[in-house]
Design a protein that fits this description.
The complex is a heteropentamer of chains A (330), B (256), C (364), D (233) and E (302). Chain B has 256 residues and is an alpha/beta fold. Chain B is 37% helix and 23% strand. Chain D has 233 residues and is α/β, with parallel strands linked by helices. Chain D contains 10 helices and 10 strands. The two termini of chain D are 31 Å apart. Classes of the chains: A mainly alpha (330), B alpha/beta (256), C alpha/beta (364), D alpha/beta (233), E mainly alpha (302). Bound molecules: adenosine-5'-triphosphate (2 copies) and magnesium ion (2 copies).
Chain lengths: 330, 256, 364, 233, 302
Amino acid sequence: MFELNRKTIILSIALLALVLLPPLSIALDESYVISSMSRVLIFAMAAISLDLIVGYGAMISFGHAAFVGLGAYTAAILGFHFHEDIAMFSFPFEFSGSNQLLISLLLAMLVAAVVAAITGMICLRTHGIHFIMITLAFAQMLYYLFISLDYYGGEDGLVMLARNELPWVDLADDSQFYYLCLLFLVAYLVLSLRLVNSQFGRVVRGCKINEQRMQALGFNTYWYRLVAYVIAATGAALAGALLANKTEFVDPGLFSWHLSGELLVMVILGGMGSIYGAVIGAIVYLLLEQIFAAYTEHWMFFLGPVLILVVIRARHGIYGLLQKWWTANV
Amino acid sequence: MSEIVLHTDKLCKSYAGLRANHNLDLQLLRGEIHALIGPNGAGKSTAIAQLSGELAPSSGRIFFNERDMTSLPVHKRARMGIARSFQVSSVFDEMTILQNLALAVQAHHGHSFRFWSNINRHRSFNQQAHALAEQFGLEQLQDVLAGELGHGEKRQLEVAMTLAGDPQVLLLDEPMAGIGPGGSKNLTRLLDGLRGRYSILLVEHDMDAVFSLADRISVLVYGEIIATGSVQEIRDNPAVQQAYLGESEESAHAQA
Amino acid sequence: AVKIGMVTTLTTKAGYLGEDIRDGFNLAIEQGGGKLGGIEVELMVEDDGRKPGKGREIAERYIKSDKVKIMTGIVFSNVAMAVVPKVVKDDVFYISPNAGPSALAGKRCHQNYFNAAWQNDNLHEVMGKYVSDAGFKSAYILAPNYPAGKDALAGFKRFYTGNIAGEVYTKLGQSDYAAELANLRAAKPDAVFFFLPGGMGINFLKQYAQAGLNDSIPVFGPAFSFDARLLKAVGDAAVGVINGSQWNHDLDNPANQTFVAAFQQKYGRMPTLYASQGYDTANLIGSALQATGGKPENMTAFRAALQKAEFDSVRGNFRFGNNHHPVQDIYVREVVKDASGIYNKTVQKVFTNHADAYAAECKL
Amino acid sequence: MLRLNQVHAGYHSSEVLHGIDVELQQGEVVTLLGRNGMGKSTTINCIIGLLPIRSGSIEFDGIELQRLESYRIARLGIGLVPEQRHVFPNLTVTENLLVAAANYANSDNPWNLQRIYALFPRLADRKQHAGNQLSGGEQQMLAIARALMINPRLLILDEATEGLAPLICEEIWQVVHQLKQQGQSILIVDKNLHTLLQIADRYYLMEKGQVVGHGPAQQLATDQQLQTRYLGV
Amino acid sequence: MLLFIEQVLNGLQLGFMLFLLSAGLTLVFGVMNLINLAHGSFYMVGAYVAATVMLATGSFTLALLLALLSAALCGLLVEIIVLRHLYQRDHLDQVLATFGLILFFNETTRMIWGRQPLFMDVPEAFAGSVEILPGVPYPLYRLLIIGIGLLVAGGLYLLISHTRLGMRIRAGASNRSMVAALGVNIRWLYSLVFALGALLAGFAGVMAAPVFAVESGMGESILILTFVVIVIGGIGSVKGALLGALLVGLVDTLGRAFLPDLLQWLFATPTANSIAASLASMAIYLLMAVILAFKPRGLFPA
Ligand SMILES: Nc1ncnc2c1ncn2[C@@H]1O[C@H](COP(=O)(O)OP(=O)(O)OP(=O)(O)O)[C@@H](O)[C@H]1O
Ligand SMILES: Nc1ncnc2c1ncn2[C@@H]1O[C@H](COP(=O)(O)OP(=O)(O)OP(=O)(O)O)[C@@H](O)[C@H]1O
Ligand SMILES: [Mg+2]
Ligand SMILES: [Mg+2]
């Protein structure tokens, strides 16, 4: 019980710090921190969604950014049609976009789910490194597709004229937007924790450890893995749609393997298969990058070795270290 | 006359020129313990893999309760009541024994697309899992990770997991392998207790166990069944002795 | 000191572009003894890694935390598209030392946005004009398959009157051009025009030469693949290529002579056009600072001062059009090689007081 | 030849061996006995250097093993047939045999492919098959053959007859017997108590990571009480 | 028709280039089962060192030698300092560590050589072209690459499949401790093999330097392509890597060469050009997806 307490205390402190961040940074006249932390929170969500399949399902996706991109583009395209008042389609009914956040988010998740279901059906036939590569392949295809989509800006990207709208909330206000992201992150975190500890979660974990045995026990592993894959994709799309609102801009770089790689790095750095780890990984990675970059333009020269050191020293990422620490000191 | 639960019709499997199973006609009766023995590489595991659905036969068909299930996938067969154990322990190393067993129980309780409630607190799964652990004398270890078990303990867990779904047919691939002499005796007793409740196809090289358990024995050599019969018939069959049993144990020791 | 925020690309393969912009800018500051237009300035530089999102992040920090009123530095159009509209909306001046996407020159021009380099199409237009004037009847044109590439070929075609023997869009980041070269050879054009920035251009030119094509079909391109630093990497393969630029180190005006000499002395290398643009941008800002006594907060005055562009541009003739984009002379240069190495020699002035094609769409 | 002195070892945070003393003389066949999970395989892993020991010492011909890497230990002439076989799945049978072949015992009549294939004709049939295409028993034969191919001075067999058909088991026992007669030192763990006690010179009984008894094998063979108490038979 | 033959040839040639790049990766990733994202960095090191030495001395032989040496040395150091600790770990830990290495190497080259690309010329002896088809001169240097690609393929095949060293590498990939327990100094062996892999990458870098731009980060885009090659071909097989490389080379080249013309039958020219270009960019990924959908373990799984 004491262990649990220690953990709870740390988590509460972390949450409190996140809640207090906007007033503090305004007081310290560093208000840009709010906005850049919103980005961190959004990436943390994306990282959690990746951890759901990488850490629990052994589906190492090297194309997860594609779903972030799809979510972001969905929001941006909806906004684009709304502001330019051009119909997206006119059959069976006319629809010319939307700037309602909830609609954007829902549609973003839907789009990602559909794409994930279709590509997933193919990807999940493969395992291990082949899965890594085939997810990469689909993401690259989307990348090149969006690069040549002149109508939506191609490689130049697409500007969102304004953030989406949500009743009672002013998303244009950075603090309010930040709290919205925080809310989403916490909700998503709780949801994910429930998910991995649910019946479904255990099945997915079983598939990771020994798929053959799972089948012999009577599980249709293919479907469970596919559903997990789709769920993860919707999480990424959610993050993507928020990200589009955050930056008010989307570009095909969101689909690139660099971003997929970075998401993976966040998950591994934080500690795979722990959900919290993904959040920690995202925060640490993005902050390290920012901090080093602020001191030297050769920031990669320092960030690289730090990452290496963490891998060698910490077996289960930063969360693993923390866990060791809060169980060791009992 | 007891009915046939599982039978195969001219089942064949070949790997690039190698005939692992050839025209296998195997019948498993309800409630019997049917031992499948034969030299190494005779095709016993191959037969089990085909029955459980992991391997697609090159030709031939498989019937379960008179229903052709040759093309059903593994998980469907498992849910119909065909459970198997693996020759090489194949458990969930990163889960505790209890979780291993609970997962096996879960497999047979409808679908698992339940995303919300905490599985570790699932009473009925845990109870059934615990009962299984007890049955196999693993209750003391139930919170140990399966990966940290000794070899023999893993073998016990392996067999325990097959019982979880209350199957009709057990396909056991060398359950005794790696279990010490004392343990083998226990497991033999345990399997004996299952007689009548399940139909068991037992692949085993431990002849003490086979002879004391089997109702019937089939002998597989080079992919073909050369004899099927009662324990005594098989023991006395010269072809079986020559291909598999060898000289009696006593003479072997004398030679040594 | 007046703070100036520079968001630029220092990492990735294109890192040298940002480096030169920054170095050119710094040179101007240094020449003023830490001052631009007599006003003390503080230049903050950060790397955007060529990522729009990151560029935006940095810009936001400059604005909110450092209270910057003047920003500059962006190399790439896609980063500019993400950053500029937001920045100018927040009442901050953005003066582009490089990227000049068409949207920002036309429909979405803004009173706080100035471009001190060119509109993206300019250097392609000049080649279109030159290639037709020189009497090449058919041209084979290539660019990567992305908006800037399409704009480039559109820009070329806007002024090219001959026949297009082939129009090819290549993969972004492509390294092998054997297939394109074979098709090109088969099409038998009189001239080849290409826009392949960065490493793509190096690969193309090297392979073009290795395929033995540069003896038979002359190559033309915008300055981007022929700056002093790239020429070193391309080597002999570039010799003889005609390319369009608004600046060259041998332009004959005093400001340019000082700049080229000082740059070489300070950094030990030949300046590129990016460096010249960074330098001009700095001096442009200096002129406005001087006019307003170092008060960019005084936006109307500062804007008016910028618009006047009262500084000695290394390009010589320089003024802004209604859309805050340069109206300037554009030249063609030839890559030559002699004892001192490989460099560009100005051949002729093709456009005088050339404005961009989008100015009319701008409501300023 | 081999001496384990107060060896403590374990995995992660748990200690599995609590001070093991085992001795084996040149030319002896010694067996470790005990129920499942008592630490027999763990002891073997310590000897071959796959598991670092926490205290105590292991000597082989006067050389301390505990600080050596496994490959050095193997090169001193210890050949291992590991529990669960561990044949190389991606190598063919022949390659599995050749991959580490050597003659550490400087034998005049070293094991070679020919002799191995004569011993296990089943393997000869499968020469070109990859390790993971073999049946369980075939893999077991391969694991034994592979250990013989390094011509060890001390051969360690951990459950070497697991999964083998009676006929083959018999052959293996004959081989062990032959080896014994040629003066090969052998450390052996097996569940075939009966046969084991006939071949072995001495036994060690293990219980919960400790040695609870040892002596001449013949003695245990007749001591039904001890067998029941520690082995459950 | 002549053009078609020429394009097929171009495709094969690109394939050989890709194979040369993939060769080291086949060894390290396919056979040793180590995911090394920094493989491209050794390629970059090879190219940079070669270009520098060539510029300074003008001798291609010296450039080649020093480049190979430094690539191998880098590989050895990386193995000893970083990767040695990670063989037993999850593949993903290797991904993170080698990602860190990429950052480090890219920035280090930038710090040493500056940001602008370097120049390297085709060595004198291979500068010209030969007419392989009537009216189609073909650069001699590209023929050289084909030749070397074949040599490396052959050598690697022999090494992996027909030497004891090869067996040990493969054995080590599946079960390291068992190989050690049989008396093989697997640690040292792997250091050497890794260095060999790095050397091959460096070799590819040297060969590529006169054809491609030598710039910081040049290894990354290539790296993805080589992974594609190996995965399509089937991991762990030299034959697979070679065929995968040729297939990718052909599909990529033919796609770029003929898609625009084909699509003109269907669409107006500008649309066709644009669609063709995006399809051609995606071609190899489409190829990979299709192959893996039907053969989930690649064409020639080892
Ligand atoms: N994937 C495969 N490819 C080629 N041959 C195979 C493959 N799997 C099994 N075999 C061969 O098929 C034959 C039958 O194998 P199987 O595993 O069924 O034997 P078994 O009777 O279970 O033997 P054991 O008692 O030793 O476990 C063996 O000779 C084996 O080498
Ligand atoms: N990898 C491991 N990690 C953690 N604990 C382990 C590991 N392997 C074995 N153990 C523990 O060490 C104890 C001794 O195991 P060991 O394998 O040495 O037993 P054994 O006597 O060889 O039994 P068996 O007859 O089953 O092979 C077991 O109780 C097991 O729980
Ligand atoms: Mg078997
Ligand atoms: Mg054991």
